[in-house]
Specification:
single chain, translocase, 33% strand, ABC_transporter-like_CS, Rossmann fold, nucleotide-binding, 6-stranded mixed sheet, binds adenosine-5'-triphosphate, ATP hydrolysis activity, transport
């Protein structure tokens, strides 16, 4: 554990009933002052991780540390953590000021201190002047900000955000993404943000944990995860990918679709069966002779910035290409790619599931 670590999960398992675990022996570290995102499909255990951090539920086994102390049995109100819920959970009968002041009143703080703290929190979320408004008179985006103000007024060390943008329309959602990111920078505290939207995760985070079936599949910066997915699940879930079966002949040489290609990967067993990922934007359309692969154009869609071209090789593998060049349906074309565009992954069953587990 390094001295930046604020939260640590050590072999945490959570079972609700006698069912399969919702979280299965998960270990990871969260550092102070960074923006983390838990990303994964519905039911993968994201909210359960937040609930464990907040103290709304306890692990079935394993240990959760906060600032180096075991907090397994510490009640939620004793944790330096606040949560912003998906539905904001605001009190409809209280005005903006009283919503934000609620927790401070329960703590029996002095009136003038409460006033100062609420004012500061509302200023942070650009809602100065809205103190007396009814919650019903606030828009979706404004309610969202009240919910954030109510959480940060307690000066938590960690703010947990459970899909806080999912109720907003696309335009407002994008605006709030910028706002949240900026707010995290200004506050300098740790944000742990839950989403199932991969674009949102890539745009906002310092670090992403990709979860599936109660396990962390991969953790890293958005670029790490996009450029070097460790397995098929991550490659498929993050962005669009072409994934084909291959064989790692030796270091820096991989075979797929019956041909051998130079690549930048190493450390596999000789002739190890692998999966190969190439992103659609890393494929360049050429004449059939100049390409590294020959494919037939099956269909094409104009997507505004690029054409999305669907092709097939002689083995029947589908190749999706994003290109500013147009292709003709039915034509044979070449596909060119650099060695760096090839990402070699171990097969799912052997893959380094839970890179974070190894820390
Ligand atoms: N209180 C509970 N009792 C029993 N099962 C639960 C409970 N809470 C969650 N689960 C189950 O645990 C699994 C993980 O749930 P969790 O809410 O952590 O997933 P999630 O990744 O946040 O999903 P979503 O994106 O749909 O919110 C699901 O199968 C869910 O049905």
């Amino acid at each position: 554990m390094n001295n930046k670590t604020i939260i640590r999960f050590e072999q945490v398992t959570k079972k609700y009933d006698d069912d399969l675990p919702v979280l299965d022996n998960v270990s990871f570290e969260i550092e102070r002052g960074k923006f983390y995102t838990l990303l994964g499909p519905s039911g993968c255990g994201k909210t359960t991780i937040l609930r464990l951090i907040a103290g709304f539920t306890e692990p079935t086994s394993g240990t959760i540390y906060f600032n180096g102390k075991n907090i397994n049995h510490v009640t939620p109100n004793k944790r330096q953590v606040n949560t912003v819920f998906q539905d904001y959970a605001l009190f409809p009968h209280l005005n903006v000021f009283e919503n934000v002041a609620f927790g401070l009143r329960i703590k029996k703080m002095k009136k003038d201190i409460i006033e100062q703290k609420v004012k500061d929190a509302l200023r942070f979320v650009n809602l100065s002047g809205y103190e007396q408004r009814n919650i019903q008179e606030m828009s979706g985006g404004q309610r969202q900000r009240v919910a954030i103000a109510r959480a940060i007024v307690n000066e938590p060390e960690v703010l947990l955000l459970d899909e806080p943008l999912s109720a907003l329309d696309l335009k407002l959602r994008t605006e709030m993404q910028y706002e949240l990111r900026e707010l995290q920078r200004r506050l300098g505290i740790t944000f742990i943000f839950v989403t199932h939207d991969q674009e949102e995760a890539l745009a906002m985070s310092d670090e992403i944990f990709v979860l599936n079936k109660g396990k962390i599949q991969q953790s890293g910066t958005p670029k790490d995860i996009y450029d070097e997915p460790v397995n098929r699940f991550v490659a498929d879930f993050i962005g669009e990918s072409n994934i084909v079966a291959g064989k790692m002949i030796q270091d820096y040489l991989v075979e797929f679709v019956g041909k051998q290609f130079e690549c930048v990967d190493k450390g596999f067993a000789p002739n190890e069966d692998v999966e190969v990922v190439i992103r659609p934007e890393d494929l360049e359309i050429t004449t059939p002779e100049k390409g590294k692969l020959k494919v037939y154009v099956d269909s094409q869609l104009f997507r505004g910035v690029h054409y999305e071209i669907c092709c097939y090789d002689k083995d029947g593998n589908e190749w999706l290409v994003h290109s500013t060049k147009k292709a003709e349906v039915g034509d044979e074309i070449g596909l060119y790619f650099e060695p760096e565009a090839i990402h070699v992954m171990r097969l799912e069953e052997n893959s380094r599931i839970g890179v974070a587990d190894e820390k």
